[in-house]
């Protein structure tokens, strides 16, 4: 599992942690021993793209680990849909063997908690209906790096998110095929196909998530992403898609879809992905991390501390509404003291997609703090401050996502 | 130019021409000499992806030559936007050196036929405005292979087309920056940056196209495609984009944009890309190939003579309106005797994009001829027959694009 494909590996330096050798300005003044130490530390921080993601564009990614890679802020283009080779990857545990995507049509899904339970292949699912949804896929912990409390977990900045198109069969069409769900069902529960090591209680690591029945309305069982067969790195051969809900609820390599009276007994549902107060552990009594809130961030200029020429500048960014369509976005160049309405550009891909925005400005030499704040159709406004929680979920603070540029 | 990148080349067998070795059923009955001959013929038909397109997904493409590659009919996904590595390539002459996309921002564009002529860099263009358009990019000769008259030129079937997103500055914003076009201008003329061999009259091979002023309304100077920097294979660092117009009018590596009283004197404008009557040469008096007509084709099942199981089948395809939004599409399973209205699926990316459609059918064992016909907002209907012309341009015949399947 996660063996490295040496013929295609890309060596990269991670951006987290200590400053790398190349960025030590005064390197000439180091002793040879200190230089060797610095070089050794740099070497340690080089991380390979794992084999299952070896086809990714490494230059566009911050590689945190073999299971966690995010898109760099300046690698989001202006084309609405995130190119697949720049899309973030986040696996809770190691993915199954690449073998399972060799012939996607033979993958089997058990359907339970319905009138006529069945085991059905992807080939059969493809005969039941097909549709495409454009939507934001975002890790629950995106923006965690900005929590001053430094919650444990991957230190995502803005890039554990992308806007993609999933194609598959609507869950509603599948439900019709199996005679409808049981009358007492309260949740849709998806079970991931990751192998569970022998002797382990599955509940300790099984990726199994439950979402409320409202999630069914737009849900898909998807075999395609951005017009390509769904790769293993993104949950192929079959993934449960729940538009508007955070990444973890979109269960990869789904092997079982059940309509249940209770939430999953797996730790990842019972105590994981809960909005626990700071310093407290997750518990079933707390709110589960399901729907995404309204959010936006600036992508161009996408470098914190970028140095730019005085004059005209097109400030660009992304804005998403969560479970309700994004309706507007404002931009500030003074850290949130004053705001101007930005314009959406490019095609509108529907309520679950993000929109690109632009604000043309003319800046004199100086230092500017750029921020953006979005609103959605439900009337939610992107807040100045994050919702504090123990594990650093759902950060949509515009203040946290601001960046400083220098214009010369 | 077009040297092969041996570390990444993909050897493929072209689909045109004689039947390959692998498809000779009775190979066991051939003499050793005949086998050797067949193997040598197969070898000859293997074509490398050229270096500038070595990053393409070779399995998704029919490689006609180093300058002409089309997407296979069954490689169009259901995700509206064509993935870049599956998008067709068509160059009229060999592209410039890959060096020109190393730092796109330094590329220079001359602007003429305006109040204040300038030479401007891509970096400067980026300060003038930015927008994104989703649109069909289609070669003028797409569908040429279906002309019974066998016109000369690449024998494109359906795949010299894709739906992509271009990002750049509106030509109108650039015109505002240079004080507007000359009052006597009748055409927007773009000149490609391909190198012209010494001693040749540039007019004989220069890619220089003129379009009527109506084309300006939605035109861009683009530096990005599908969220990525525009690669050389698709006209990077800068391409003129005229939504609704055939590929050749979207001038690659654009080095000069002029607002002119006359059409370009280049052969490609004067006699090339003209709707000449069959058997006649192109001439300036004939209609130039500019706007695309309404068109559709089926993509799933995407194999001519595909063998399928009786029962439910989701017939899928693509429909485009040309310069007017596509509004509907009908599907026939009996070669056009009867028609049923198909449904559009997935996001609507605007008037210049294509739409995905689906018609669920239940088919008994037998042979079926599948066809689709689209209509647009302007009231144009996709015709049964092609418009005959000497070079095989603008084929939108639904009859020509039909395909036969066998259900067992």
Automatic annotation (TrEMBL), chains A, B:
<dbReference type="InterPro" id="IPR000572">
    <property type="entry name" value="OxRdtase_Mopterin-bd_dom"/>
</dbReference>
<dbReference type="InterPro" id="IPR005066">
    <property type="entry name" value="MoCF_OxRdtse_dimer"/>
</dbReference>
<keyword id="KW-0479">Metal-binding</keyword>
<dbReference type="InterPro" id="IPR006311">
    <property type="entry name" value="TAT_signal"/>
</dbReference>
<dbReference type="InterPro" id="IPR036374">
    <property type="entry name" value="OxRdtase_Mopterin-bd_sf"/>
</dbReference>
<protein>
    <submittedName>
        <fullName>DMSO/TMAO reductase YedYZ molybdopterin-dependent catalytic subunit</fullName>
    </submittedName>
</protein>
<dbReference type="Pfam" id="PF03404">
    <property type="entry name" value="Mo-co_dimer"/>
</dbReference>
<feature type="domain" description="Oxidoreductase molybdopterin-binding">
    <location>
        <begin position="102"/>
        <end position="265"/>
    </location>
</feature>
<dbReference type="InterPro" id="IPR008335">
    <property type="entry name" value="Mopterin_OxRdtase_euk"/>
</dbReference>
<keyword id="KW-0560">Oxidoreductase</keyword>
<keyword id="KW-0500">Molybdenum</keyword>
<feature type="domain" description="Moybdenum cofactor oxidoreductase dimerisation">
    <location>
        <begin position="287"/>
        <end position="400"/>
    </location>
</feature>
<dbReference type="InterPro" id="IPR014756">
    <property type="entry name" value="Ig_E-set"/>
</dbReference>
<dbReference type="Pfam" id="PF00174">
    <property type="entry name" value="Oxidored_molyb"/>
</dbReference>
């Amino acid at each position: 599992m996660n063996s490295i494909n040496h013929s295609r590996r890309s060596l990269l330096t991670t951006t987290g942690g200590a400053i790398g050798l190349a960025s030590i300005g005064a390197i000439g003044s180091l002793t040879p021993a200190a230089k060797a130490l610095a070089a050794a530390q740099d070497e340690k921080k080089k991380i390979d793209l794992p084999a299952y993601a070896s086809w990714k564009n490494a230059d566009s990614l911050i590689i945190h680990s073999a299971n966690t890679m995010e898109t760099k802020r300046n690698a989001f283009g202006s084309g609405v849909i995130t190119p697949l080779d720049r899309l973030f990857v986040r696996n809770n545990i190691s993915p199954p063997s690449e073998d399972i995507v060799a012939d996607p049509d033979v993958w089997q899904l058990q359907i339970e908690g319905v009138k006529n339970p069945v085991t059905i292949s992807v080939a059969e699912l493809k005969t039941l209906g097909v549709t495409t949804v454009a939507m934001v896929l975002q890790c629950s912990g995106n923006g965690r790096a900005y929590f001053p409390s430094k919650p444990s977990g991957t230190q995502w900045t803005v890039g554990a998110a992308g806007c993609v198109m999933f194609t598959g069969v609507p869950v509603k069409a599948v439900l019709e095929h199996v005679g409808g769900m049981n009358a007492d069902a309260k949740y849709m529960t998806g079970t991931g196909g990751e192998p569970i090591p022998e002797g382990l209680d599955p509940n300790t690591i099984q990726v199994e998530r439950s979402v409320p029945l409202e999630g069914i309305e737009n849900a898909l069982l998807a075999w395609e992403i951005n017009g390509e067969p769904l790769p293993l790195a993104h949950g192929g051969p079959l993934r449960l898609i729940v538009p508007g809900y955070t990444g973890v609820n979109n269960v990869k390599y789904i092997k079982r879809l059940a309509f249940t009276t209770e939430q999953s007994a797996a730790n990842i549902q019972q105590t994981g992905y809960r909005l626990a107060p700071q310093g407290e552990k997750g518990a079933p009594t707390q709110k589960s991390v399901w729907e995404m809130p309204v959010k936006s961030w600036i992508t161009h200029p996408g470098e914190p501390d970028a140095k730019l020429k005085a004059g005209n500048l097109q400030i660009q960014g992304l804005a998403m509404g969560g479970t309700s369509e994004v309706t507007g976005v404002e931009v500030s160049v003074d850290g949130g003291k004053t705001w101007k309405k930005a314009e959406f550009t490019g095609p509108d891909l529907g309520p679950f997609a993000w929109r690109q925005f632009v604000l043309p400005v003319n800046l004199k030499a100086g230092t500017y703090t750029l921020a953006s704040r979005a609103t959605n159709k439900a009337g939610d406004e992107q807040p100045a401050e994050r919702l504090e929680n123990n594990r650093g979920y759902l950060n949509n603070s515009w203040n946290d996502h601001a960046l400083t540029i220098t214009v010369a």
